[in-house]
Amino acid sequence: YMLLTGRPPFHDEETLVDLALAHLNKEPADVRDYAPEVPESTAGLLSRMLSKNPQDRPRDAGALLQELDKLV
Question: Which residues contact 59 (CB under 8 A, 6 or more apart)?
Fold first, then answer.
């Protein structure tokens, strides 16, 4: 997220507690809100990688590599 947008997923929080709560309870903004040139497929994978639900994320590095290969 940071590499694509230049900012972390949560950046408006005023305190560390607010930041921790954001990580627990909020969904980050779509990466294309800050970097509209990012392809939809890349944004979708990134969104899944940041999912609160572990079952929605790639299961391991190998699965992530397979998905990244599909993007190229």
Answer: none
